[in-house]
């Protein structure tokens, strides 16, 4: 059994999308230097498995605030007087390669605001509107926390003077952008002149955990990266050429799936668990539901009638949408933006879907396509989705 939310009509549109990434990258060699060396005390069997995993993820690089060059060095002895930075987070740790939760938080607290503000400035520039016309700010993150939150840092950092409401929608994992956009839709539905700035940010590189002992825990360490993505969402249809949103829907899987995706706070940062049952469960959730999702959000019934923006949760997850068992039968080209995102960014958690969506909308515009189905998933296990329809402009044909 699955619980599906009821969709109610409201009018809002995505006006622009933005992004911001750090300068460093983790590569397969980065993870080889950690997991397949004496730095992490794994047995031969585990190291062999990690080698196979790293070579099979489909990931070439992952953006990171942490400088990977520190993994090439050797600890020189702990000195508490040396400040913690992204340059030395793992190298300076008292327990080699295993910083404390507080030390990890120091780096997160420096870089999460930088990435958030970078993505905010990027989307405002692409939007081209007056920043003082923004009425609401929503931020989302699941990789760290501090108070006041990122929402207030955005308002202060950009000097926004006309904010009616700001809110942090945190700890929602990979469907975090959907949760933030749901709140944005609610603001747009209640205030006809709402202009909402949404930013999703993750700094996952601070949570590499040498104490991870299960394969389901190690998997998360080699998949997740750092970055921020953003959107301007406005009430009303937005005029010709913009992408009008359907209400966001949700399907929640049965209680026995609650442990398929979990994140727990430990003395060595966050510990992520990804079950091997994630992809099979996704098939079970979507198989009876996907056609109804298309009908609700886009008033279509066949997958080829729209373009697809799918959260790049990993190779196994994306392959679900190619599987005959599910019946959607998308080609590799159909999901090229999702596969490209996974290859070049890994899984950014909440920011990923907006990064994918930006590439899909660009390609859809170039191909003259006017419908996009957007879908993601995360802890719960929960699937969230919505449709986008490009509004016709005065220059479009009848």
How is this structure best described in words?
Helix 3 crosses helix 4. The longest helix is centred in the N-terminal third of the chain and has 27 residues, at 101-127. The protein is built from 11 helices and 15 strands. Strands 1, 2, 5, 6, 7, 8, 9, 10, 13, 14 and 15 form an 11-stranded mixed β-sheet that branches. A two-stranded antiparallel ribbon has the order 3-4. A two-stranded antiparallel sheet has the order 11-12. Helices cover 33% and strands 21% of the residues. With 398 residues, it is α+β, with helices and mostly antiparallel strands. The model has no long low-confidence stretch (mean pLDDT 92).
Characteristic key phrases:
398 residues; alpha+beta; eleven-stranded mixed beta sheet; two-stranded antiparallel sheet; 11 helices; 33% helix
What is the general shape? globular
Provide the succession of SSEs.
EEEHHEHEHEHEHEEEEEHHEHHHEE
Total helices: the number is 11
Secondary structural class: alpha+beta
Largest sheet: 11 strands, mixed
Radius of gyration: 21 Å
Mean pLDDT: 92
Let me know the number of strands. 15
Q: Identify low-pLDDT runs.
A: none
Give the helix proportion (percent range). Answer: 25-40%
- How far apart the termini lie comes to 43 Å
DSSP strand (E) fraction? Answer: 15-25%
């Amino acid at each position: 059994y699955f619980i599906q939310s009821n969709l109610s009509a409201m009018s809002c549109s995505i006006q622009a999308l933005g992004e911001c990434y750090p300068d460093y990258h983790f590569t397969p060699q980065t993870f080889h230097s950690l997991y397949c060396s004496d730095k992490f005390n794994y047995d031969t069997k585990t190291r062999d498995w990690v080698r196979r995993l790293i070579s099979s993820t489909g990931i070439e690089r992952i953006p990171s605030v942490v400088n990977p060059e520190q993994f090439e060095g050797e600890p020189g002895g702990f000195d508490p007087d040396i400040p913690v930075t992204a340059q030395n987070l793992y190298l300076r740790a008292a327990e080699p390669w295993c910083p404390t939760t507080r030390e990890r938080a120091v780096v997160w607290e420096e870089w999460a605001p930088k990435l958030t503000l970078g993505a905010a400035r990027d989307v405002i520039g692409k939007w081209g509107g007056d920043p003082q016309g923004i009425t609401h700010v929503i931020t989302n993150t699941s990789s760290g926390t501090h108070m006041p939150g990122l929402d207030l840092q955005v308002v202060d950092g950009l000097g926004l003077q006309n904010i009616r409401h700001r809110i942090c929608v945190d700890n929602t994992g990979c469907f975090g952008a959907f949760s933030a956009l749901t709140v944005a839709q609610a603001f747009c539905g209640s205030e006809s002149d709402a202009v909402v700035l949404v930013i999703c940010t993750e700094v996952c590189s601070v949570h590499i955990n040498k104490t991870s002992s299960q394969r389901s825990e190690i998997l998360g360490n080699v998949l997740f990266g750092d970055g921020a993505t953003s959107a301007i969402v406005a009430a009303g249809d937005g005029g010709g050429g913009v992408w009008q949103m359907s209400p966001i829907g949700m399907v929640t899987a049965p209680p026995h799936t609650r442990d398929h995706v979990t994140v727990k706070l430990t003395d060595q940062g966050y510990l992520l668990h990804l079950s091997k049952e994630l992809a099979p469960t996704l098939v079970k959730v979507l198989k009876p539901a996907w056609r109804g999702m298309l009908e609700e959000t886009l008033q279509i019934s066949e997958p080829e009638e729209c373009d697809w923006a799918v959260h790049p949760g990993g190779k196994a997850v994306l392959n679900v949408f190619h599987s005959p068992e599910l019946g959607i039968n998308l080609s590799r080209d159909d999901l090229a933006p999702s596969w490209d995102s996974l290859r070049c960014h890994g899984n950014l958690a909440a920011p990923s879907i907006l990064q994918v969506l930006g590439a899909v909308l660009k390609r859809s515009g170039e191909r003259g396509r006017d419908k996009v189905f957007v879908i993601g998933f995360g802890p719960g296990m929960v699937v969230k989705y919505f449709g986008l329809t490009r509004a016709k402009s005065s220059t479009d044909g009848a």
